Amino acid sequence: MKRHPLLAFFIIAFAITWGFGALFFLFSGQLISAFGEPDLGKPFYRAWFHLAVYGAPAAAFIVIAVTRGMAGIRAY
């Protein structure tokens, strides 16, 4: 990750964003039976949506933490 931080960022961001989306489609029947129909007014679906949407900033935070340490986090 330290040699190719941009590549690491793209891989992590893609994995977070599309990973949550894929899990939702793969297990939509189980999620609907447990939490009801998808509606962003429901806390579970809102949290799921935000985890997928904020995949890029989370990936940036992870890459900065690994490559630059606490000084990078403070600057970020």
What does this structure look like?
The protein has 76 residues and is an all-alpha fold. It has one domain (5-75). 82% of the residues lie in helices and 0% in strands. It contains four helices and no strands. Helix 1 runs antiparallel to helix 4. The protein starts with a helix and ends with a helix. The mean pLDDT is 90.
How would you concisely characterize the structure shown here?
This protein is mainly α and 76 residues long. The protein is built from four helices and no strands.
> How many H/I helices?
4
How many separate domains make up the residues?
Answer: 1
Task: Report helical residue fraction.
Answer: over 70%
What is the N-to-C succession of helices and strands? HHHH
* End-to-end Cα distance: 18 Å
Q: Uncertain segments of ≥5 residues (pLDDT<50)? A: none
Q: Which helices and strands occur, and which strands form pairs?
A:
Blueprint (H helix, E strand, L loop, with lengths): L4 H22 L1 H8 L7 H11 L1 H21 L1
Describe this protein with a few key phrases.
mainly alpha, 82% helix, elongated, 76 residues
